[in-house]
Specification:
There is one protein chain. The protein has 59 helices and four strands. It is mostly helical and 1203 residues long. Among the domains are: 74 residues, no CATH class; 58 residues, no CATH class; 131 residues, no CATH class; 130 residues, no CATH class; 137 residues, Cyclin A, domain 1. The strands form two sheets. A two-stranded antiparallel sheet has the order 1-2. A hairpin with a 2-residue loop joins strand 3 and strand 4. The protein starts with 5 loop residues before the first helix and ends in a 7-residue tail after the last helix. About 6% of the residues have low confidence. This is Protein broad-minded. Pfam families: BROMI, BROMI_C, BROMI_N. Interacts with CDK20, which promotes CDK20 stability and function. Interacts with FAM149B1; may play a role in cilium assembly.
Length: 1203
């Protein structure tokens, strides 16, 4: 716009006039200049023709011409940058490009030029407007003089006059309207006055001095017998609600509410009674309902904008509403007639109390409502409770067929517009139910209880009300007719009550206070209890009611306090029969349903849905460690597996539908029903995998492969894993992957392949709309026949040019592969396997060798880059064994300064000495001597048990006082003696001893696997570092392994474990120790337990790794000795307590890494810095007191039980 001609100026003026003419009505209706500006600023949001205005098109084209090329460049640059990192959404791109554009020089120059040009145009238009205004005023004066004699103040009804379009409201005109609205005036005069009022701008009406008087006049006119006149007043009210500012609508609303309040109090007005009902075709009823409906519409809209205005306005609206709804006319003169109160008319237009829901949503309005209910209008709450009680009593006393018959009678077409008294009471009950349900969500709302009712001796407590709600689920019959047949289901008592209880369950604090108590749970369990006793559950209990009950029980079980209540009752330490608690009853009922040991609803089509609902409830219970412990005796996994096998057989027998056959639809429906039931059963079985011991039970059913396939299918469809589960697929997948059978199931289902494909896509493919060519996960030509074409071959072992060229993002993908290798090799079993199969150390050393540059003939330097730094870290990690103080791992990042990476790189072994710690080697012989002296106190006793207990006491005393002296050869001697005595005590032995007679000659020809040989080398290397082993140790350890293998083979000839446990291949450390670690962690360190589940990572997985490799690489040698000694001296349950102590020690780190979403990597890679077994000894003794009986009993029960 550098060259702004006169023609351009004229064109812009025309465009602006068109824009202002189009929005004239909106601007002139604004009460102030600020409001007019707001209207223009938000014109794009409110005007559907916004983009059709010529001025808007002009601006768009001007911006495109000036900034278009720069915007395109910024978008291309952003897209290119994002290809190397994480994907960003559309909103992120827009925000970035907009910010860069607004900060550019071109944008600032464009805005400066545009402002200057528009100022010229606007000033020109203002000057022209002032000239036109002056000419217009002169012309008006001339016309006024000519018509002064014939002017009549009554002549203001010419609605077609063009002067009305520029009509200005003034004080005299409003006084004239007030006079004309008087009831004594002719009908036509009053109509015309009201018409003029509706035509005037609301801001002019409000600013008049007579506004208050007008408001009173309009309110009084609402009772005018002329229906047309009263309807026009309502029209003015509706228009005011829509177009006027809040303080004006507030006055209109309060005046309307006050009018209705006086209307219901007046004995002159004919108001229907409960017995006569409401005929909505009656003109008087229609007018009354219209007023109430208008009031209700404003009630629902007001919360969206009253927060922006003074609090007193909102308080006046709330109080006027509550005052109206509390109105009750004195009916002492009426013996048998009950006049309908305002609330009955409100519920007809808002049965679900939407207005109250919206008022309670915001804190500000909720505070006002609750304060007024407590101080002045508690009668509203009392009336709502009274209505619920009366409806329940009606359900108890009346027969089902009577009410159903009345419902059919109400559905008669001749009575479509008539509501009987009973129907009104039912709609009022629905409104009361919704109102109370919303009230109970909030603490101050619950404090309004107990409620004292008339004709009732005892007050209704919060618990009493909830028990009543629950009883309504299975007592109430089908609901009476509502506004239309389509709403019958939505307004059923059971459905409405269930909806309210579900909302309460979803608010944890509310659920704990309202539902997690014995009377409520007993009310939910009552029909189940009666059904199992063979009696009728309740007068009208149906399949639908049982489904609702199961859903509420499942939601209660999802809350920690609710689960505890279901498992143990209100008092966990009481002597009451544990089998009578809720969890036991639910499990018993489900088992009877699954085993078809109960005749309930025999042949019903909804029976599978009832079973499915209670399966979901039990899943919520046995999906936790403590819940599984309680429900194990019922063998639900076996019942579910048997039901699934039976269903699977039935589904295979269903004939394939033949096209054109009449039975196609019936067969198809039957097939869908069976498939849904089969999936329900698989879901129930799959939830056993949420805990280590549950996974063992699932493995025993033989259905683990089908369950994992079912899980993968839901994962592929992006479906939730279960209705009430709080964790995602991550927890289940990590649990399943912890066992060999589970890993096989994951592989065969396609789960692992899908995860690898997704990983490959994220690393190499990028967005679909960015790249045209996608590299394949497996190259066309074989690269290396010795490696599988999987993630190891493609991302880690990049030992050829062909592999490197096959990657689009070589460095990024290879670094990821090296990071993955670092995490995987933290498991020493996996490290040995990778070394045996792929020689990863050699490959990495060769890669480092190739990354050397020769600066001179005798000097070679490693090239420092991301790959060489990562390889150096991995090589040190996989070659050195040691705890946090025993080995030094080089960092993965470069430092600032002249020497960014001071750590020496290497391309051959041995490692540089700087990675070996010198301060932790076993050189202090004084410790052995000190411990040797203490051994003298452990004198042999005639009573073996006494000697064992004495050793335990002394060990505990030393661990608390001088833990550092418990090490070295004396500790070995003590352990050997202690173990010898344990083996001679039958009560201390898990497995009986066997005689071993093999000699070196017998095992001489035995061969060790390559993995075992590498393990021996690793062990000897660590032992030499600690000065514990000598050069001959490798040969000695080889003989030890050969003898151990022969001994274990001999021992396996005797069966000490149950057959199904052996066949499962799941180690007792996992299904017993790790199971109890998860169970205790939830109680002892709940924040850590929650962090694991939020991360999609099971605590049992990392504990299994810690324990199976005896904390190598996680603790220093002395702490490992303390761990082993503690478990031997004090019992195997200390294995569990030590892991709990570690989690307690790591709590802050775990919470932090949960936020950074790298918890699993942190726990696998990082040593346990600062953890000492002795520091947590007193804490572990407390754990022993609380949990030892249960843990040791279960640990002993892993053996084959003698019969």
């Amino acid at each position: 716009m550098a060259h702004f001609s006169g023609e351009d100026q004229a064109t812009l003026q025309v465009m602006l006039r068109q824009l202002f003419q189009s929005v004239k009505e909106k601007i002139t209706g604004a009460p102030s200049l600020e409001c007019a500006e707001e209207i223009l600023l938000h014109l794009e949001e409110t005007d559907e023709n916004f983009h059709n205005y010529e001025f808007v098109k002009y601006l768009r084209q001007h911006i495109c011409n000036t900034l278009g090329s720069m915007i395109e460049e910024e978008m291309e640059k952003w897209t290119s940058d994002q290809n190397q990192g994480e994907e960003s959404g559309y909103d992120t791109v827009v925000q970035h490009v907009t910010k860069r554009t607004q900060e550019s020089k071109a944008y600032k120059e464009m805005m400066h030029s545009l402002k200057n040009s528009m100022m010229v145009v606007v000033e020109s238009m203002i000057d022209k407007f002032e000239e036109d205004e002056m000419r217009s005023r002169e012309r008006q004066r001339k016309i006024q003089k000519e018509k002064s004699r014939s002017y009549c103040t009554d002549n203001c009804s010419d609605s077609d006059s063009s002067s009305n379009q520029s009509y200005k409201f003034f004080q005299g005109k409003l006084q004239l309207i007030l006079d004309q609205l008087d009831p004594g005036q002719p009908k036509e005069v009053r109509y015309e006055a009201l018409h003029m009022l509706c035509s005037a701008p609301p801001s002019d009406v409000l600013n008049c001095e007579n506004w208050t008087t007008l408001c009173e006049k309009l309110t009084a006119s609402l009772s005018d017998p002329d229906p047309v006149f009263s309807d026009r007043i309502l029209k003015f009210y509706a228009q005011t609600f829509t177009l006027s500012p809040f303080h004006m609508t507030k006055e209109i609303y309060t005046s309307l509410a006050k009018y209705l309040e006086l209307y219901f109090l007046s004995r002159e007005n004919h108001i229907p009674t409960v017995s006569t009902g409401i005929d909505v075709t009656n003109p008087n009823v229609i007018r009354l309902l219209r007023k109430v409906c208008l009031l209700n519409e404003y009630q629902k809209e007001a919360p969206s904008f009253w927060i922006r205005h003074p609090k007193k306005y909102m308080e006046e609206i709330v109080e006027s509403t509550l005052s109206l709804l509390s109105v009750k006319r004195d009916q002492s003169h009426l013996a048998s007639q009950k006049i309908l109160h305002p609330i009955y008319f409100l519920v007809l237009v808002d049965a679900r109390a939407v207005w109250f829901k919206k008022w309670m949503h915001g804190y500000c309005s909720r505070t006002v409502v609750l304060r007024l209910l407590e101080k002045k209008y508690k009668s509203l709450v009392t009336a709502a409770v009274q209505q619920c009680v009366q409806y329940f009593e009606l359900c108890e006393t009346m027969k089902t067929d009577e009410i159903v018959g009345q419902s059919k009678h109400c559905g008669n077409k001749q009575k479509t517009f008539y509501y009987s008294g009973q129907e009104l009471q039912y709609i009022y009950f629905i409104h009361s139910l919704c109102l109370l349900g919303r009230l109970l969500i909030y603490t101050q709302g619950r404090k309004l209880f107990p409620i004292k009712l008339r004709n009732r001796k005892d007050s209704v407590s919060l618990t009493d009300l909830l028990v009543l709600f629950i009883q309504l689920i299975y007592y109430s019959p089908s609901c009476p007719k509502m506004t239309s047949a389509a709403h019958l289901e939505n307004y059923s008592p059971a459905g409405m009550v269930t909806e309210v209880l579900q909302i309460l369950c979803d608010q944890k604090e509310c659920a704990i206070e309202c539902l997690c108590n014995k009377p409520v749970v007993e009310a939910l369990l009552q029909p189940i209890h009666n059904l199992m006793k063979g009696t009728k559950a309740a007068p009208h209990c149906s399949e639908a009611a049982l489904i609702c009950i199961a859903d509420i029980l499942a939601r209660i079980a999802s809350v920690e306090e609710g689960l505890t209540l279901l498992l143990y009752g209100e008092n966990m330490n009481s002597s009451e029969e544990k089998s009578s608690t809720g969890a036991h009853k639910i499990a018993q009922f489900l088992k009877k349903l699954l085993d078809e040991d109960i005749s309930i609803f025999s042949g019903s089509e909804m029976l599978p849905m009832v079973k499915g609902a209670f399966i979901s409830t039990c899943c919520q219970i046995y999906g936790t460690c403590e819940g599984l412990q309680v429900l194990i005796p019922y063998g639900l996994h076996e019942s579910l597996a048997n039901a699934w096998k039976k269903t699977n057989l039935v589904s295979e027998r269903i004939p394939t539908p033949v096209e054109g056959s009449d039975s196609v639809s019936s067969v198809s429906q039957e097939s869908q029903n069976i498939m849904a039931w089969e999936e329900n059963l698989l879901d129930g079985l799959l939830n056993f995998a949420a805990t280590p011991k549950g996974l063992l039970l699932l493995q025993r059913t033989g259905a683990i492969s089908e369950c994992v396939t079912f899980m993968f299918n839901r994962y592929a469809k992006k479906l939730q894993i279960s209705r009430h589960k709080k964790f995602d697929y991550g927890v289940l997948v990590t649990q399943v992957a912890s066992t060999a059978a589970g890993t096989i199931a994951l592989q065969s289902s396609g789960f692992i392949n899908a995860l690898i494909t997704e990983l490959w896509t994220n690393l190499e493919c990028g967005k679909d709309d960015v790249r045209v060519t996608h590299p394949r996960a497996t190259p066309v030509d074989p690269i290396d026949q010795s490696c599988q074409k999987d993630i190891i071959d493609r991302l880690i072992i990049l030992n050829s040019e062909a592999k490197i060229r096959s990657l689009f993002n070589y460095e990024q993908s290879h670094i990821f592969g090296l990071r993955l290798l670092s995490v995987v090799c933290c498991n020493l079993d996996t490290l040995l396997l990778l070394e045996a199969q792929y020689q990863v150390s050699e490959i990495l050393l060769n890669a480092q060798e190739e990354n050397i540059s020769e600066t001179s003939e005798n000097h070679r330097d490693f090239i420092i880059d991301g790959l060489s730094v990562e390889r150096n870290h991995v090589l040190v990690r996989i070659n050195l064994i040691g705890g946090p103080m025993e080995r030094i791992l080089p960092p993965r990042i470069l430092q600032k300064g002249d020497d960014p990476y001071p750590w020496p790189m290497f391309s051959s072994y041995p490692l540089p000495n700087c990675y070996l710690s010198e301060g932790t080697r076993n050189t202090d012989q004084k410790q052995d001597n000190d411990l040797g002296k203490i051994l003298l106190h452990f004198k042999m006793s005639d009573k073996q048990t006494e000697w064992i207990e004495n050793c335990r006491r002394q060990f505990c005393k030393m661990m608390k006082a001088k833990p550092d002296i418990i090490s070295g050869g004396a500790l070995v001697e003590l352990l050997e003696k202690f173990v010898l005595h344990l083996s001679e005590s039958p009560s201390e032995c898990y497995f009986p001893s066997i005689v071993y007679t093999a000699t070196d000659a017998n095992v001489k020809n035995e061969s060790l696997s390559l993995v075992q040989q590498l393990g021996i080398k690793m062990t000897v290397r660590y032992g030499k570092f600690l000065n514990l082993l000598k050069d001959s140790a490798e040969s000695d350890l080889t003989w030890v392994l050969k003898h151990c293998e022969r001994f274990l083979t001999q021992q396996q000839a005797h069966r000490y474990l149950p057959v199904d446990t052996i066949e499962s291949g799941i180690h007792p450390i996992y299904f017993c120790s790790a199971h109890y670690i998860e169970m205790l962690l939830k109680t002892e360190v709940p924040l850590v337990f929650s962090a694991f589940h939020m991360s999609g990572f099971a605590p049992s997985q990392i504990c299994l790794q810690w324990i199976t490799q005896c904390f190598w690489n996680y603790l220093d040698w002395i702490e490992i000795c303390h761990y082993i000694a503690t478990c031997i001296f004090l019992g195997p349950d200390y294995q569990v307590y030590i892991c709990i102590a570690i989690f307690k020690h790591l709590q802050q780190d775990i919470l932090q890494h949960t936020q950074t979403q790298d918890l699993q990597v942190f726990l696998k890679e990082e040593a346990l810095h600062g953890f000492r077994v002795s520091d947590y000894f007193e804490y572990m003794e407390i754990l022993e007191q609380n949990y030892r009986p249960v843990l040791l009993r279960d640990m002993r029960n892993i053996r084959v039980q003698s019969t």
